[in-house]
Amino acid sequence: MNLSIKYRPSCLDEVIGHKNLKKNLRSYLKTRNVPHLMLIGPPGLGKNCIAYAFASEYFDRRISLDTEEGDVDYKEFNASMDRGIDVVRDSIEDFARMNPSESDKLIIFLDEADSMTYAAQLALKSVVEKRERNCIFIFSLNNEDGIKVPALKSRCDKYHLKPPTNTEMAIWFDDICTQEGVGFEKSVGNKLVFDIVEHYKGDMRAMLIDCLEALIGFPNKDCITEEDLFKIYQEDTKSFAQLVFESGDMKKRFIDLWRKENFSVRKFLENLQELRDWKNSRVAAVVDANLRAGGSERLQMCYYFDVIGE
Question: Where in the numbering of this chain does the AAA+ ATPase domain appear (predicted)?
Answer without folding.
Answer: 33-164
